[in-house]
Amino acid sequence: MVFSGTLFPFWFLPPLLLLYYVTPKWGKNYLLLIASLLFYFTGEPKYTLLLIASAIVNYLFALAIEGLPRFRKLFLILDVVLNIGTLVFFKFSALWFGWANALFGTSLEALPLPLGISFYTFQAMSYTIDVYRGEARLQKNPFAFATYLCLFPQLVAGPIVRYTDVDEELTHRTHSLAGFSNGLARFTVGLAKKVLLANNLGVLCDTFRQADAPSAAFGWLYAISYALQIYFDFSGYSDMAIGLGYVFGFQFPENFDYPYISGSITEFWRRWHKTLSGWFRDYVYIPLGGSRVSRPRWMLNLLIVWALTGLWHGSGTGVMNFVLWGALYGLLLCCEKLFLGKLWEKFRPLGHLFVILVTLFGFVLFGADGLSGTLSDLAILFGRSGLTDPAALYYWQSGAVLLAVAIIGATPLPRRLWAVLERRASVATAILQPLLIAAALAISTAYLVDSTFNPFLYFRF
Question: What are phi and psi of 112, to 5 degrees?
C-alpha cells in the first residue's frame, strides 16, 4: 500500500481516523501500532515478522544497555552488527547467492528487498545508540517503542525519525483542529506533487528509455525530467508523511528545503534528504572525528561517509552505480572544503550552475542500469546518436509546461508569492486556500483513478 494510491486515502485512512479520534488516550498508540502493522502487511506480508523482530530485538538491546552497564558497549556493538548485518544481507542477497551458486552449483534466487528496511533499521539504531550515549530516555513500554519504529506515516520511506524526535509525543501528544487541517493540507500538497508532477515527469523519462537511438536533446530532457521526478517523488512522499504526522499529533522533522537553489554541493546536502544527511553526520562522521582531525583524515572521513551513503542507496548487482555516486559527492565535498567553497562564496551563480550540472549527471548515474548503462546514458548526453531528432523536439514541446511548472515548484517562489498574498489579502487567502487544497485533491484523485502509472522510486532503497 502506498499513500499515492486509491486504497490508502479512501479505504484505509478514513476509518482509521474515525477510530483514532474516538479511542481513549491510553489506547491510541495500540491502535496506531495495529494499523501500522496492517499497513505494512498489505504491501509486504512476508517481511512483517522481520519488522516486528527488529522492534523486539532493539527494544531488548536498549534494556540491556541501560540495565547492565558493565556490558553496555558490548550490547551496543552486537546491536549495530545485527542491524547492519541484516540490512547488508537483504540489500546484497543477489551478490551472496550469486557467489554461492557459482561455488556450489546451486540455483538460489535473490531475496526481494523488504520495504523500508533502510529507513526503519537506521531509526532503530539511532534509538539504541542514543540510549547508550545518554541522549535518549529508555522506553520501558515495548508497545510504545514498537509504535515509534513501526509508525506507518514514516515507515517505508522516511523521513528518518529519531526516537528523541517523538519521545514526548508518544505519551503526551496533543490534538487540535488546526493540526488536523494543516496535516491534511500538507498531505494533499504532497499527493499532488507525487501524482501530478513526479508521475508525469516519469512518463517523459520512460519515453526516453523506450527510444531506440535517442539524441542528445532527448538525453538532456531525460536528465532534467529524472532529477525533477526524483525530487517531487521523494519530497512529495515526505510531505505526505509529515502531514499524516500532524494529523496524529506527531511533529516529524522536515526532509527537504528547496535543494535545487543551492550554491554549493555542501549546501545541497543540507537541503536534500536532510534526515539521512543528519543521521550520517551524527552517527558516522562525528564519531570518526569529523573535522576535528588532520586534513588528510578529515578528507578520509568525508569519503567514508559518502561511500556508505552510496551503499545505503544501493542494492543487488547494481550497487557499484551507487558507490560511484556516493564517491562523486564525497570527492566534490572534499574539493569544496579545500578550495572550491571559497570560489562559490564569491561567485554564487557559478556555484549554482555547478550544483545543477553535478546533480543532473549524478542522477543519470543514480538512475542508470549498471555501469554499462551509465556509460551509454552519458554518451547519449554528449551526442553519440546525434544532437536532436523529431521525437526529442516533440517531447520537449509537449512537456514544456510540465517542466516549467516543476522547475518553478522546486524553488521557494510559489511559497513567497503566497506569503505576500496572505499579508495583503488575508481574508481572500483564508477562503482560497481550502478551495485550492480541495481542487488539488480532486484532480489528484481523478488522475489516480484514470492512470495505471504510479511508481515510487525510493521503494527501491
Answer: -65, 145
Is 273 one of the annotated active-site residues of the chain? no
Distance of alpha carbon 223 from its chain centroid, rounded?
Answer: 19
Q: Residue 255, SS3?
A: coil
Cell 509508525 sits on residue:
151
- N-to-C CA span, the chain: 16
Residue 74 has pLDDT above 80, yes or no: yes
Mention every residue, 6+ apart, whose C-beta is less than 8 A from residue 417: none
Confidence of residue 458 (pLDDT cuts 50, 70, 90): low
Please state the φ and ψ torsions of residue 258, each to the nearest 5 degrees.
Answer: 50, 65
158: left (phi over 0), alpha (psi -120 to 50) or beta: left
pTM of full prediction above 0.90: yes
For residues 409 and 398, what is the distance between their CA atoms, to the nearest angstrom?
18
Backbone angles phi, psi at 109, to 5 degrees: -105, 145
Closest C-alpha to 152, from 84, 64, 244: 244
Neighbours of 401 (CB within 10 A): 9
H or E element at residue 353: helix 348-367
With contact defined as beta carbons under 8 Å apart, do 456 and 229 qualify? no
Instruction: Give the pLDDT confidence score for residue 348 in this predicted structure.
Output: 94
pLDDT at 449: 80
Catalytic residue (choose from 172, 175, 273, 313): 313
Side chain identity, residue 367: G
Note the Cα 336 to chain centre separation in Å: 25
Q: Checking phi first, is residue 161 left (phi over 0); if not, alpha (psi -120 to 50) or beta?
A: beta
- DSSP annotation of 259 reads G
Residue 381, helix vs strand vs coil? helix
What are the boundaries of each domain within the chain?
A: 7-173, 179-450
Nearest alpha-carbon partner for 308 in 79, 74, 88, 77 = 88
DSSP assignment of 129-146 equals: HHHHHT-S-----HHHHH
- Burial pattern 156-178, b for ≥16 Cβ within 10 A else e, equals bbbbbbbbebbbebbeebeeeee
- Per-residue pLDDT of 142-191, as tens digits, reads 999 999 999 999 998 889 999 999 999 999 998 999 999 999 999 999 99
Cell of 378: 552519458
Q: What is the share, in percent, of the chain residues with pLDDT greater than 70?
A: 97
Is the separation of the CB atoms in 357 and 264 below 8 Å?
no
pLDDT above 90: percentage of residues in the chain: 74
